# Entry
Amino acid sequence: MWMRWIAVCSSAALISLNIFAESEAGADAAESRPEPEFPALEPGQSGTIALGSGVELALVWIEALKFWVGKYEVTNGQYRRFNTSHVSKPWARHVLDGDDQPAVYVSWNQARQYCAWLTRRIKGKWPEGWLFRLPSAKEWETCARCGDAREFPWGNEWPPPNDWNYRGEEGLWAPVRLFTHDKVIRGHTDKFVVSAPVASSGSNILGVFGMGGNVWEWCRDEFSEEYGTRVIMGGCWDNYQRHLLKTDWRSECAPNGTNQVIGFRVVLAPPDSAAP
Ligand SMILES: [Ca+2]
# Structure
């Protein structure tokens, strides 16, 4: 059954929609253009949605969840289509603000606003009630586990493959390694000292990138009822601790909190899958 699901996903046609094009040229120009045809993506298909200015949002159909998941973490380039002034501030002089790097310094509240913006843009152009939102922690874990009991998003081996972005031996001046052997993943070198372009952050067998590492990802769920914190999952480029890299590990952050290691990914889901 699982292999059949993989086959469906991997054979899915790539279809590009231009539903966001009107945002570029303004309302007047948009009214003069013919309406694009909707919906073009069918269940089982993966594809992309155009956000304008050549920016696209890639989606992968996840059969076990019966909806689409962002193929990548939301990038700075994608987020700036919503918030043109957004800046992912540098960390220790290392750039985090590249268009293809994941957007960080985005709070849970802001991530939800981005989802709401995406949803408004597809209104009337997608089956009624479908919406963009953050994944629940359980949904995120389902996508990370790829249908089996794997310990980590890439599988069960240790250290992680080098195309998954964690704190490895990259970027360390050789003598420093002698004194930081317990502060990096020994035997792991991913080339990126900080976040990687999302397409270089490791793909799972479903074709979803960055489910482990690169940046932590906001989930919809509350972590602490007492403190109102929200779940983040997946670990990040600055993590080396084995337990943080597991598919089911949940960490937390305040919903208005931001930092250099937390980003997010969107899902496009039917209304009956969404909690308030
Ligand atoms: Ca990630």
In short: Residues 1-37 have pLDDT under 50 and may be disordered.
